[in-house]
Write a structure and sequence with these properties.
Mean pLDDT: 86
Oligomer: single chain
Radius of gyration: 37 Å
Number of helices: 4
Order of helices and strands: HEEEEHHH
């Protein structure tokens, strides 16, 4: 009679284990279109055998655990790549804005105005008594000064916009950090709720 019950126990363990595997497959199919879902698999393990006088007798199979099928190296690379891409995107936006400020000077860009200003000083050094040359130096100095003021104003506006963006990002980061902390707490509580302490909180 004991042998019959042992045989039925082996069959029951096999049914329970494979039922868990089927449910896991159904869970994967149900969440196939869920963003962020990681496919899971049932990990089977041979049940601890029975030591008889005639030898070691197997006792079937157990469902050892449910694991997420994910590659941490790939996930880490994707996170790093996304971070680098966003960083470069922000830098490009800021540089494009700065370039727009310099282009706002038109044909009289800063380099040209500096050249004209120093050229007018050179002319003044050669003809200090010429009133027209003196006026030219004053006019070139005024033009150069206005250009510096315009550049400073434009670059300050860019700096303020970037600071404002950082403040918004900090708020977003704080919100995400709070969500992550809450999720981590749920994961720890879920994984320690089992008697074995080896349960994986795959969906969390």
């Amino acid at each position: 009679m004991a042998g019959l019950f042992d045989a039925l126990g082996v069959g029951a363990r096999a049914l329970i284990a494979n039922q868990g595997a089927i449910r896991t497959t159904g869970h994967n199919i149900s969440n196939a279109n869920v963003e962020g879902y990681s496919r899971q698999r049932a990990v089977m393990q041979a049940a601890f055998p029975e030591d008889l006088t005639v030898g070691i007798l197997g006792r079937g199979v157990n469902l050892a655990s449910i694991e997420r099928l994910t590659d941490e190296f790939i996930n880490s690379s994707l996170r790093q790549g996304a971070s680098n891409l966003k960083s470069l995107d922000v830098q490009q936006t800021a540089l494009n804005q700065a370039q727009g400020v310099y282009r706002a000077l038109g044909d009289g860009d800063l380099a040209s105005q500096l050249t004209k200003f120093f050229q007018s000083l050179d002319n003044l050094a050669q003809r200090p008594e010429d009133m027209a040359v003196r006026r030219s130096v004053v006019e070139q100095a005024k033009t150069l000064s206005e250009s510096f003021k315009s550049l400073r104003s434009g670059l300050n506006d860019i700096r303020k916009n970037l600071s404002s963006s950082v403040s918004v990002s900090v708020g977003t980061i704080n919100g995400l950090t709070a969500e992550i902390a809450k999720l981590n707490k749920q994961i720890v509580e879920s994984e320690h709720a089992s008697a074995s302490g080896s349960r994986n909180a795959n969906d969390l």
